[in-house]
Every structure is written in structure tokens, then in C-alpha cells.
Amino acid sequence: MLVAFSVTPLGASESVGDLVAEAVRVVRASGLPNRTDAMFTTIEGEWDEVMAVVKQAVDVVAAQAPRVSVTLKADVRPGVTDALNAKVEHVERRLAGQ
User: Which helix (H) or strand (E) holds 95?
Assistant: First the structure.
């Protein structure tokens, strides 16, 4: 499955970047395939392992912020692997006219 999520600390300070970086650090340390862009971090794996990483990312932010907002979108497709790359590669091939 793929899970795209964002974690937003509320009430900690005006800049949220440092706390968001801590959440991304958790994701990267998980060893699961992942990608971070300006809006979301996407992680790929099995349901339990992905959700455990999301929870850890939220927990690390919640330890430093009184409130945390989480946005999550999931693509559950049993048997599919490397969707993190394959989906983007498919679109890129279409854009290249293939």
C-alpha cells in the first residue's frame, strides 16, 4: 500500500519546519520506500508497518506540540510492489508519448 500523509504541529511555534523534519526523519529511519515533497510524505509497505511509521511520526511531533493535525490518503492494492516509483514512471512515459 501507499500512504501519503502530512503532519502539522499546531500551537508549538510559527515555523513548523523543524518539527516536520523530525517526522520525516522517523519515516526515513523506517527503511520503507518513501518520498517527501512540499506537501506530503509518501511511504510504501504493508498496512501494519506503514501505519506504525505514521504513528511514530505523529508521536515525535506530538511530544513537542500541544496539538497535531494529520492528513492521510491511502492506496490499498494487495500484491502491488514498487508503486511509489511505478505510478510516476507510468505518467512520465505517457508524457513522453510512449
Answer: helix 83-95
